[in-house]
Amino acid sequence: MGLDVRSDDNCHLWAEQSGTGPPLVLCHGGPGLWDYLAPVARLLDDDARTIRWDQRGCGRSQRRGPYSVARFVADLDAVRDHLAGPVTALLGHSWGAHLALRYAIEHPERVSHLIYVSGTGIDPERGWHPHYERNLRQRLGHHLDRWEALGARARTPAQQRERAVLQWSADFADPGTALRHAERMATPWLGINEDCNQALNAEVKQELRDPDLIVQCRALDLPVLIIDGTEDIRPRWAVDSLHEALPNSQRVSLAGCGHLPWVENPHDFRQAVTTFLTEQRHQTLRQVHREPADRADPR
């Protein structure tokens, strides 16, 4: 049974938590989708207390706006405050990676670690997008005609689901299992909030053109792990500028994986995340234990 978190403007946000350990808030992608990160939570159950949530207007959360980056950052802060405590680690996937990054920029004192999974970087011209469109069509293969036909007209909920499953199948590297993975993502089907998707995508496009964003990334002095699947149809060089801008980041590329690397390579995904969290926590403890001695040294 889900938990009910109230935002500061009294919007009901669905959330769920599981596992034991330090808190880790998970931010799903979209925009306009719902939480599909239960498999990530299960992988990390022994290492973190994971907190999942449906973003405003999506899935099991209340279907109301406004749909803006600032509003979603404030909602994430409500989830953090209600369920995680004063400081939490964040893991964001795709659009959720951008949301987690924006939150860390605005509230660095409330974030211990940031895990940026399959995001699309901070390229102001979104130069990756034409490559994504081409790769999507190529990977759809013999499903391309049906996907295009469904996109050319108003759709029933069943047709909306069918088109989403076809499109999401391109996010997996192995064509033999791609449709099955996409079907699992779409079950249960909670409907895509197209208004939310369009509003946030338009705002992010404008936000990336702001030169302050790269300046803010350069000032973000907290540990960041960037995880990519090498077979993601969104070209991974799009993330290079973010990796270079962040002062304390490391990057892991998982071979043979598409956009959801924990599905196709769960062992290495879990190892990358847990190693990062453990190493950074040990480093923090070493710094805390050194500080009193450093202050007492008269030299």
Features:
alpha/beta, AB_hydrolase_sf, disordered C terminus, Rossmann fold
Instruction: Report the CATH superfamily.
Output: Alpha/Beta hydrolase fold, catalytic domain
- Content-based structural category: alpha/beta
The stretches of 5 or more residues where confidence is low (pLDDT under 50) are: 295-299
State the total count of DSSP E strands.
8
Q: In CATH terms, what is the fold-level topology? A: Rossmann fold
Strand composition percent: 15-25%
* Overall pLDDT confidence: 94
The CATH class, by name, is Alpha Beta
Protein name: Proline iminopeptidase
Family: Belongs to the peptidase S33 family.
Pfam families: Abhydrolase_1
Keywords: Hydrolase
Written overview of the protein:
Belongs to the peptidase S33 family. Keywords: Hydrolase. Residues 22-266 form the AB hydrolase-1 domain. The protein is of the alpha/beta class and 299 residues long. The protein has twelve helices and eight strands. It has helices spanning 38-43, 69-84, 95-106, 129-140, 144-151, 157-169, 178-185, 194-207, 212-218, 240-245, 261-264, 266-296; strands at 3-6, 12-18, 23-27, 49-53, 88-93, 111-117, 224-229, 249-254. It has an eight-stranded mixed sheet, with helices on both faces. Helix 6 crosses helix 7 (178-185). The longest helix is centred in the C-terminal third of the chain and has 31 residues, at 266-296. The N and C termini lie far apart (58 Å).
Itemize the secondary structure elements and their pairings.
Layout lengths: L2 E4 L5 E7 L4 E5 L10 H6 L5 E5 L15 H16 L3 E6 L1 H12 L4 E7 L11 H12 L3 H8 L5 H13 L8 H8 L8 H14 L4 H7 L5 E6 L10 H6 L3 E6 L6 H4 L1 H31 L3
Parallel strand pairs: 3-4, 3-5, 5-6, 6-7, 7-8
Antiparallel strand pairs: 1-2, 2-4
Helix pairs in contact: 2-3, 5-6, 6-7
Organism: Micromonospora andamanensis
Family: Belongs to the peptidase S33 family.
Protein name: Proline iminopeptidase
